[in-house]
Amino acid sequence: MVLDRFRGMWVVFLSFFAAFVLAIFSLPDFLPDYIAYARPHWVALVLFYWIISLPHRVGLVAAWISGLMLDVLQGGLLGQQALAFLVIGYIAASSYQRMRMFSVWQQAMIIFAAIFVAEMILFVIDFMTIDRTWKFLYLLPSIVSALLWPWVFLLLRHLRRRFNVD
Amino acid sequence: MLGFSVLSLFLVLLDHNSVYLDDIRGSLNILVTPIFYVAEFPANTSDALSEMFSSRERMQEEIKNLNQHLLLLQAKTAKMASLSAENARLRDLLGSSEKLEDNVLVAELIGISPDPESFVVVLDKGKRNGVYLGQALLDATGLMGQIIEVSRYTSRALLITDVSHSVPVQVNRNNLRLIAAGSGRINELELNHVQDTADIRVGDLLVSSGLGQRFPVGYPVGIVTQVTHDPGQPFAVVKARPSAHLDRSRHLLLVFTAEQMAARKSQSRELDDGS
After folding, report:
1. Domain boundary pick from B98, B132, B162
2. Is the CB of B4 inside 8 Å of chain A's CB atoms?
3. Can you give the residue range of the structural domain that contains B61?
4. Cα A56–A61–A66 angle (5° rounding)?
């Protein structure tokens, strides 16, 4: 049955929705400004998990669409996050068999590399269009995302097993 | 993969160099509007909850304060009414057109740009409420910014302290015309190309001059906080603090000015004729 084949896909959609909310959530006023630089790449983490665990369901098209939605949400140039997400999606989709053999911290290293490359793409586009200058603070999102990966991984794996997503 | 990458790059270039994608962005924005509301839910609810649980005495205290404030404002308005009538009479005598009152629309903040280097806010009013591109945004104390993107239910505004924003101003004391550019820090404006001999002092009020026909005339923009004359520099270094509470106000005003509406109408007519 069709319903049976897409069992639990709502979990996937819900996790993406939560990631989008976390991506634009405004921080409370009392926090210092530079905390905003450390905001992890939530959508990329969720996307990465679903690509390596359900490669036959979530792939590059999902990556591109979620990047485009992030562009609209954040008000940047249409297509720049989409391009960055394609790269993350490509890294995940081409290494999912290896990723499954790794420990979570080894996976976190790959996550760091993938998000770092994506951030560089975003920076180069910003550099060419709005003359943004380089700061080492731009490395924070990839570091924080990599550190958060084990917990995101465990949470999403728990949800996947609990609701039997396939 | 390659096809999608080329498509993304094409979109980036098209969006950077033209306005063709604005409509598509507008429709996509409708899709993501629920995400804005969910993301702002905690901030809104915490306000509502603190209201619900504040004590009776505190409420009474607040009402008393508000009533006093209202009385003060009413007294000021009463004086204003006679002054504005007088102003209109004098303008009549001079033969210049009467300055019409501006209409405003109250909007609520529903999102802030997650990028710490761009000062962009999302408002809960859109095309449906008549919001248009370039419309001026105020709070109770001064000019905040302008609308840069309109979709059906929401719109996005650029604040005056963003690095890519500048606003034409004049010093209220002597009508000296200047340009106030954003500095990239939320509470600082930089005044460009101020002559070393220019008459400008710390504490001067800057108001919008209306030149460039984007912002209405006479709204407070900022107060000069620093004037430095450095002989090594061609111009004086002048900094100002915005009058509006750029990082605190949640309830904002969108201004509809009569002149601007007329200008927009004639502009769209020209465009229609041209095509």
Report:
1. B98
2. yes
3. 54-98
4. 115
ipTM of this predicted complex?
0.83
Domain identity same for B194 and B246? yes
| Contact between B223 and B243 (Cβ < 8 Å) | yes
Q: How many CB pairs under 8 A join A and B?
A: 96
Residues 237-256 of B with CB under 8 A from A: 247-248
Cβ contact B222:B243 at 8 Å: yes
* One domain for residues B143 and B244: yes
Inter-chain residue contact B15 with A25, CB threshold 8 Å? no
B186: which chain A residues are within 8 Å (Cβ-Cβ)?
33
Length of chain B in terms of residues written? 275
Return per-residue pLDDT of chain B as tens, 275 residues: 788 888 888 888 888 888 888 888 888 888 888 888 888 887 777 777 777 777 788 888 989 999 999 999 988 888 888 888 888 788 777 766 555 567 788 898 888 888 888 899 999 999 888 898 889 999 888 999 999 989 888 999 999 999 989 999 999 999 999 999 999 888 999 998 999 888 999 999 999 988 888 888 888 999 999 999 988 888 999 999 999 998 888 889 998 876 666 666 665 665 555 44
The Cα B120–Cα B138 span in angstroms is 14
